[in-house]
Amino acid sequence: MHLRSRLALPAALLIIAIAAAAQGTSSNFPNYASGSQELAATPGTYGGAAGAYWNPAAWAAMNGWDATFAWNDRNLRNKTMDDWGLFLGGHGLGFAMQRNTLVDTASAAPQTSFIEDYQLGLGGGDPEMYWGLAYGWSRGRTDWANRDQYVSLGSLYRPVRYLSIGAAANMGLTEHDRRLIGDVGVRPLGMYKLTLFADAALGRFDTPNTMQWGAGVEVRPIDGVRLAFKMTKPDAEKQDKILSVSLGLAMNNLGFHVIPHYDKDSNRLSTSYVLRCSELEPDLKTHSMLRRGEDVVTKSMRGAMVYRKARWFDVNRQSFYDVINMIQHAKEDKAVGGIALNLSGMDASRELLWEVREKLADFKSSGKKVYIYFDRVGMASYYFASIADYLWMDPQGNIALPGYVAGRTFYKGFFEKLGLGVEEWRFFTYKSAFESFARKDMSAADKEQRLALIQDFYDVWSRDIAASRNMTTEHLRTGIDTMGYFTADEALAFGLVDSIGAWDDVRDFIEMKTGKDPSLINEDAVQAKNYPDPEWGKAPEIALVYLAGDCDMDTGIKGRLSSRVIRKLGRNDNVKAIVIRADSPGGDPLPSDLVARQMKEIRERKPVIVSQGDVAASGGYWISMRSDRIFASPFTITGSIGVIGGWIWNDGFSNKTGFTSDHVMIGKHADLGFGVRVPLLGVQIPDRNLDQEEHDRMERLIRGTYADFTKQVAESRGLEQTYVDSVGQGRAWSGTRGLEVKLVDEIGTMENALTYAKRQTHLDGKRVNIVEYPRREWMNLGGLTEPTSPIGLLTRLLGKDTATPKSSEYELHVLEKIGEHRGQPLLMVPPEDLPAEE
């Protein structure tokens, strides 16, 4: 947002307050000078619920929860706490109250009573500009204290990490009184260790001589220790100043502040005390110091691992990025000495498991341990589990290690029985996506590329497991070839696991391994120890954009929407780099090119890096090529630079079924694609194949698209087009071979790609936000119809299957795409985009 619009709200509040300053006859609001003394700073610089009482925009700045209880020793009644306040809130919501004792000195015998001031507040905005709205009311002797119901509008403007400007306008609802509270904070070092601040409260008829004001400095030499000095002029009639000295200590979310107040002769007038339970800012972690390495984080890996998990009602899925972050947080937490994972029910692709495995290896490099339990695992999940320092399995569990196989089902014979003619439009050696429908067996070229793929996967798989389990690859491969399936006892004897037992025995196994009784904590406890950033202003962002699924305009990668999102991110100056997570088997060239064109344009302004997932081939490689750098994993399927097409027509189907069609036409080729529409299925079967003229035209289109594809790859990768053609021809490569043939730049994880983006933008080691796009949905309504949910069970009883279609149905998806884009070139990998493994 432009500076002019950012300053609009503070300026409006100032105008409102000054324009109405002459209205009313007396002050109808809680006294700012005395009531804010427990801050020992200003509402905008101190933050938290106590600061939000005076500027409701601070409720929005609280991206954590805060509970503060404050009191002072100005006792007007013996052995009684006369003045105190309670402030609660966070995440844009807040409640506060203050209770003060009042004395009526006008009567012959002074009387005491009380006034209670309440406030409900809410706020919103972003780290650069927050807004807040609050409603305040009072109870008790409001006639003694001249109270009125009021509305407070607040703003906090933090354009950079060095500056904070706060403003709040109080407006009475009955007496129409007005007041403006403003504050400013400056951090010369750009960090929260040193803050200079000043504040003022301007009421009606106030002049610079009569208004309340204050100024001071706050120092935080180490996390958890706060020292502040503030000089204030609290009284509108008197010019005497008060010096407040604040000393605060916070440990494990609990803080205590002592704030004595002195007059100009250094006489102590009173002392304020603050007890604060807060997750808003860093503090001393005695737990980490006293229990160094004694905590073990336990986590169930049950459920499907996905990129975008909804915030609510999504208990049966794991967010890939959240898992990576949890491991990083555990690595940074000095109290954590290990992670224990339960793999029962885990559902994740081999590529995602490789990335999480790499993250666990990084975790182990810090000297911490990984403990893993499983019941039943196959090739990919055992590969993941093998990274453990200590590995055990259920007594009734098993390990299936048959090796890798890549094959497919062929439909040509079935189509012949139905009376359907099938023709494959294949002009490039390895582009075999349509083979399933046009052949009865694998072509020699397809066998060659599929065997090379699974050989690469097998080599990485056996090498890494042998290294982790301290055995030779020959020993491991012997077990696969002679057994393939291992019971618990056989797995233990063969050296695949360290012990046999249940997940409930996790504490005993860890104690046996370390010699210490571990403290088991869940992943939420680790997350809770990572505090919101206390620095001001909006941190620079790196956008993480997920392009997953087939290349389609409105589903999968959503080319129409994704291209707009990427263009918007490219124009956002706060987004310093874009990391694309490409996980697509391809599809329609149009959405692929929409995205690629935007990436090419943005590269002129900021880095665009691609991290390839399970498959980034054909159309998935098209959306990868226009980047500054491509990362892939050993288990990524990449390349498949080629174009495919095909045709299915009525070649006796009418005779077998009785369905016929007829038509009239204008235009020589108008009937191409017209034919019988099968009831209920909504499928139209063309009455005829292409004639020679149409065949020639189709071939020119496919070859032209391929020439354009190879040309763009050559330009993007700095290669000769003839070389791209030599490694193209539809050939699918593993990530390892993709590096060798120069189609990718580095074997690495999505986290490696993000780190590279930080280096390229000089943000490595600095404050930066990783923001995911598309944004996560608030709730997963589909989770309400999961097979295990009540609704899901009911629909199954009624004969309706609510399960998500499996990747094994990709053959039908290819057929559907060919039907949707009949006669058009397609960028698709074969149906067996991920080779079968178990």
Describe the fold and architecture.
Strand 10 and strand 11 form a beta hairpin. The C terminus is likely disordered. Strands 1-2-3-4-5-6-7-8-9-10-11-12-13-14 form a 14-stranded antiparallel barrel. Strands 26, 27, 29, 30, 31, 35, 36 and 37 form an eight-stranded mixed β-sheet that branches. It folds into four domains: 202 residues, Beta Barrel (Porin); 156 residues, 2-enoyl-CoA Hydratase, Chain A, domain 1, CATH 3.90.226.10; 274 residues, 2-enoyl-CoA Hydratase, Chain A, domain 1 (Alpha-Beta Complex), CATH 3.90.226.10; 37 residues, no CATH class. 30% of the residues lie in helices and 31% in strands. It is an alpha/beta fold and 838 residues long. The relative contact order is 0.09.
CATH superfamily of the largest domain, called what? 2-enoyl-CoA Hydratase, Chain A, domain 1
What is the highest CATH level, the class of the largest domain? Alpha Beta
As for the CATH topology of the largest domain, it is 2-enoyl-CoA Hydratase, Chain A, domain 1
Mean pLDDT: 85
List the strand order in the largest sheet. 1-2-3-4-5-6-7-8-9-10-11-12-13-14
- Outline the biggest β-sheet: 14 strands, antiparallel, barrel
- Supply the helix-strand structural class: alpha/beta
Number of strands: 38
Work out the strand percent: 25-35%
Shape: elongated
